[in-house]
Input
Amino acid sequence: MKRRTFLTSAVAAGAALIPVKSFASGFIGAVAPQTYPVIAGIDASTSAPHLIAVLDAFWARNIPVTCLVSPFDDQGQPLGPQSPLARLLSGFLLGGSGIEIAPFQPELATLSQHFQARAAHDAVAALQGMLQPVERTLGLPIRVQTLACHDVASPMSPIAVRTAGVFNILCLPEESAPVRSETWQNGVARLFGGSRVDLAADAPPAEDGTTPTQTVAYLSARAFAELPLDDLEAAAAAYAERLTQQELDGTASLLPVSDLQLRDAYQFNRFVCLHVTDPLRSAGADQAGHDALVDLLAEMELPFSRGPDIEPSTPNADLGMWVPTEPPTPTEGEASSPPAPHPIRLIASQSDGTTSIRTTRPLAAGIAVRFAPSTQTRRGLDAEGVLTLPQRTIQTPVTADTLAAAFAGVDDMVVLLRPEDFATQDATDALKRHLETLRADAITTCVSINDLARRVVPKGPVPMRHRRVAAARPELVPPAGGLSERARDTLLDDAKAAWRYLDQFTHPETGLCPSTVDFSPGGRLHEAVTMWDVGSQINGLVAASQIGLISSKDFAAAIAKILPNIAGRVSQDRRLPQGWIRTDRTRWGNKNFDGSDAGRLLASLDNLRRHSTFGDQLEELVASYDLDQVIRDGEIFSVTDGALHSSYISHSAHYSALAFRRWGHQVRSPYEVFSGRSVNDGQMALLEAVVGIGPIGAEPLLLEGLELGMSDESAYLADVLFTTQLEEYRETGRMICVSEGPIDSAPWFLYQGLQLDAQSRTWAMDTVGREQEYRTPEFRDEFLAVSSKAAYLWSAMQPHDYSDRLTHYVRDTAKTQNGFASSIFVKTGRATKNYTDLNTNSIILQAIAHKLNTTG
Output
């Protein structure tokens, strides 16, 4: 069977499945330019009499028209089947008119692949919910193959809308423009341009002499109401007559947009998965039928899956499949092989409707798939990240006709092959003949469930990372039990080493400790510290007191020396903590203010307030800062040379927001995108927000957990970072532990982190000055480093074998007589032995105190 023959028969066979008249069979192969009449702007506010007038004009002349409908009200809630618009559209569908309906999602083209898939699922489900009476009356689902949206300058890839059965995207132009089309690798087609039709015009627009091969004629439902009803009826009739005459003259073929995929130019393909169910009995005819099916498909070299019967009407109603979508990550000592799909149970919560997965085996990076033969479960990617695919069964006895019915249409589908239905040679032979016909039609491609999932699910680095993290997170369960005496003694020795830095280098008069120390011959102390550094020192002192390295009296004396130095400075009628101060001079520093560093300072003062007797003094100190003057619209601003600039687009902004809130200031965070979203959608929104900021490292994610309690947002990002570091180690043997910190050569300080939007796993870095010479791959490879403090943070916040490896490595490589070296270079294994810093040693003290106090 040739491609065009299949398309004609597929449309004819599919007509029983579509409560919308299809016109493709009459026009396939026609040479006349294709015209797609479309009515845009239909929503709950549309005037029903005016819309009826136009639809009647098209219906009376047997002209197909696609209606672009917003299936949501002004509050974003789905319109129900009892809404006036739903009743109007249902009447036309049940009456046999030539209308098809496509949801309108205005911002679709601006969304990522994940959120396009989600928008397609929700819009199609809402539209089908509106038209439920039609589905019940016809006993068939409303097929929705087209979505529409506004045109934008740089639209995102639309390939993931195919998860919802959508093949076509219309991008509505602001003004008339030539039609331009795109076809994506998985068959999704997108059209730009088209003609804006004004029914109020006395005459059609003048032609420019060219003959386009296709055009989309857009009428505006909003404009209908601007005309008196009688005038609109006459104008609609006149326009419909012109279209009819064009078709009679052979200058146009009038088509619904759903037929777009049936044009040869788009090379449409549909994907069919064959699923052989387990035999009901392991002997006799059932087993024979199973063996015959497996042998036949193997002989024909067709991919298929095997497993339980996934028909929802069976006792396995909650059964789904876990389908791997990413290449496997090898584990130590194990060879990697492509993982196979396997059954899972999808358990719906009675309280909130969320879906949880139950499985007896570890999950590879992939997606949960549910199969739906009825209108009860809408296809596509739902809020819980479960992909629903259409499923067909073959009516018995198996004949050429029942096989044709099961495989009919153009939708992607999973077809169940039950062994008990193929116990006879006649049934098996009929299946073979039909599969041979499908293979020859140039349209149908039999694929594995893995392959289908890979073709339709959202692609790109962020969805891939999300799926990998979801598969790895079950491994992150903390081990039971406390620390052994030997482990406690080792940690105490580490704490003493870190304490030596603060003990040796703190200035006796100011009480402040230098930010970095180079104790090689000719080295020096860096005696300017930021408020971030001071915050670290305060936290280090609190930790040293908790561990028992410093007496209560000495602790109080140390804090009493520090506090006068952070009284702040008045500039432009604002008293604010200074950008930096000297450690060897009392209350001496600049007039700038850093919003991120202030967040660190406020977090440390809150920590001190909870673990000391300085509470009243700290309340007075923080109240003296004019912080309200650097908070605008919920964003924290920094001040540089008197000019304000936002510190919101920063990974410190979330940590700072939590710290500012501890002192009564209402501040927004760029991470807080979970509200109103499911867990799955919230995680994806957070990853996309992080991409807009930059690479993520261990700080301040894990500092938040130590000092403020880990928020859900930071807990998830910590899992993303940790599992990716673990993945790198298992694949390459490289120990990765990225954060920010100093190094012992130019550029002296590096920000290192995971770049989530890179096509391959990338550990990116940047400098304070963002100099281009330090952004090369060669520099990155040479200076990628294990952060000593981050290793101890992971040990405290994420107990795991890999965390233990990191701390052992740092302990053996970076411990010195003056504290811990800041970094260990991954390429050479060389530590910055003669170069260490206040943040590293203070944070190691914090992490050890946390671990000793929480694990016993």
Notes: Residues 485-644+658-855 form a domain with the Glycosyltransferase fold (CATH 1.50.10.140). The chain is about 40% helix and 20% strand. Residues 229-249 form the longest helix (21 residues).
